[in-house]
What does this fold into?
Amino acid sequence: MADLLKRGLVTALALFLVDQIIKWAVTGPMALRSLGDVREIMPIFNLRFVPNYGISLGLLTADSNASRWALVAMTGAIALAVGFWMTRERNAVDQVALGCVLGGALGNILDRVRFGYVVDFADLHFGEWRPFLVFNVADAAITIGVLVLLARALLVRDRPAPVEKSNA
It folds into this structure.
């Protein structure tokens, strides 16, 4: 069990660090710091600075200091619940998925504490069509983790543990 928990925690830490390093590179050395700052990377992918004051899909916008800290508290509570779930999870795939959710949540929480918003920058587009809102590594990690958990819950049946025979 300890090895499984370690796997989830290492995943969370790795994603948290990657998220923060890339956000630092985008807003620091690449100097994308203001709304509208864009750098084309490929014809279908730009780096575009977008401060996200809400949660997924721009919902629950924090338009005051009180609502900002309420979002921090709410997402912090969710991160604690995910961390607790990790301590009880016995499936390796689910541990890694929970690590993705936890690492992403912590990355976005740190942004909101430091800046008052989450730094979004990844802009995937095909011409004018954008299949996603501008996002970041943390958002992608959360999404992938949740999709894996949902797919496993809905589509995969774990085999029951073999019953040991007694010699009585």
Observations:
- DSSP finds four helices and three strands in the chain.
- The chain has a mean pLDDT of 91.
- Helices lie at 2-27, 65-88, 92-115, 137-155.
